[in-house]
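> tool_call: predict_assembly(chains=three)
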Amino acid sequence: MAGTTPGSTAITAPPEALDASFYERPVVEVARALVGCVVELGGVSGVIVETEAYHESEPACHAHVGLTARTATLFGAPGRAYVYRSYGIHALLNAVCEEEGVGAAVLIRALEPLTGIERMWRRRGVREERELCSGPGKLSQALGVELAHNGADLQEGPLTVRRPPRPRAPDEIVASTRIGITKAPELRWRFCARDNAYVSSPRPR
DNA sequence: CATGGGATTGACT
DNA sequence: GTCAATCCCATGC
């Protein structure tokens, strides 16, 4: 609709959360598409500026070992959260991709803070805004993502992913190798918003 | 049942 | 640059 309906506000309604069909395609494609989308939990949100793709066909992916208690979520329905504990300390947030039965997910690695920033400061206890969400463990702490969110539907909420407020052009996203892994290090499955200050280190060259 | 390894972070040399 | 914290869970005896 081109005009504003009489009696309605001029503000466009927020877009719906992404549905399962968005995630039910090649995981590398989804990883690139998620850069610029918005993750939100309980009013705290940020724009995704960095992702990584993981697929059962390569050994860095948890699903590479097959279906176990740990990987069940990865093999489940697309559009759900896969949250696991890393190094005994951090809860890392992923979005399950591809069709049910295929183990694949996108790791959300960094956000540009958008809303609820006061709560991010309190939860993180850091001095620099750059430090709020510039890493997968950091953003989970800032948003309040916990292991209990494992398997949660990212469309239904409360943990949701929405389309970007303003779509990014493809050339604003740079591909590079993944961080912190020892297996399949050659795959360039990390996607970052070019020159964005909130990307985690090491930054892509 | 014991062991070992992380998709990290922050503190320190 | 180095390194430890800390816990889930896969693997092997």
